[in-house]
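Inverse folding, one chain.
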C-alpha cells in the first residue's frame, strides 16, 4: 500500500516526477505506482498545496522551493521528518502485525491513525501480508509502540484492537523489509519508474 492517500494532486505529482504534464495527469487521474526510495527528493514527501500553488513536504512541512534553495551543485536540504521527532534523524522501526480478527479494508484507516500520533509514519512499501512497517526515532518509539497497541476500531459494535503484535526493529532490519516489500511490489506490478 502506498504510504500516502492517492489524491489526484499526488498522482499528478507522481506523473510530474516522470516528466508528464501534471495538469494533464490531474485531469486524467492516472493511477501510477509510488516512486522509488532515494529519488533526489531528500526524503521529503512533497505534495501540492493549492492554497499557495507550491509543493510542500507532508512530514517536515518545508516547501520544495525552500528545500531546493541551496548553492548550485549542493544537494537538496534533507527532510527532518516529523516535527514530533524533534530533529532526530536516526530512524528505527516498528513491525506491526495486523490483528487477524479485524475485517479486511482497514489498512488505509490504520495508516491514518499511525500518522495521527504525530510520531510515526508508514514509509513507502511499508505494507505486505498483513504486516506494516512504521518509521520513528529512538526518543519516541516506546511511546509510539504503546499508542499503536492501543489503537482499536469499532466492528459490529465492539472495539477490536488493530494489531496483534508490535516488534521493535533496528534501522537496518527495517530498511531490509522495505527492500523486500519493494521487490515484491516490483514483481507484482512492474519496476517503479
Ligand atoms: Zn520533509
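Residues assigned per position:
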Amino acid at each position: 500500500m502506498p504510504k500516502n492517500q492517492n489524491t489526484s494532486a499526488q498522482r499528478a505529482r507522481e506523473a510530474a516526477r516522470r516528466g508528464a504534464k501534471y495538469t494533464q495527469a490531474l485531469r486524467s487521474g492516472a493511477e501510477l505506482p509510488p516512486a522509488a526510495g532515494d529519488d533526489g527528493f531528500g526524503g521529503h514527501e512533497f505534495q501540492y498545496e493549492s492554497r499557495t500553488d507550491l509543493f510542500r513536504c507532508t512530514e517536515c512541512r518545508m516547501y520544495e522551493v525552500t528545500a531546493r534553495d541551496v548553492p548550485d551543485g549542493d544537494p537538496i536540504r534533507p527532510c527532518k521528518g516529523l516535527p514530533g521527532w524533534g530533529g532526530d534523524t536516526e530512524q528505527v522501526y516498528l513491525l506491526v502485525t495486523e490483528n487477524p480478527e479485524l475485517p479486511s479494508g482497514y489498512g488505509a484507516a490504520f495508516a491514518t491513525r499511525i500518522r495521527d500520533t504525530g510520531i510515526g509514519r508508514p514509509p513507502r512499501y511499508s505494507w505486505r501480508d498483513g504486516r506494516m512497517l512504521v518509521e520513528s526515532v529512538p526518543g519516541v518509539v516506546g511511546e509510539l509502540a504503546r499508542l499503536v497497541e492501543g489503537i482499536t476500531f469499532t466492528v459490529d459494535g465492539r472495539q477490536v484492537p488493530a494489531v496483534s503484535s508490535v516488534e521493535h526493529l533496528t534501522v537496518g532490519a527495517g530498511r531490509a523489509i522495505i527492500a523486500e516489500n519493494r521487490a515484491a511490489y516490483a514483481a507484482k506490478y512492474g519496476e517503479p519508474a
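The chain has two domains: 7-84, 87-189. Residues 44, 57, 59-60, 62, 79 surround zinc ion (CB under 6 Å).
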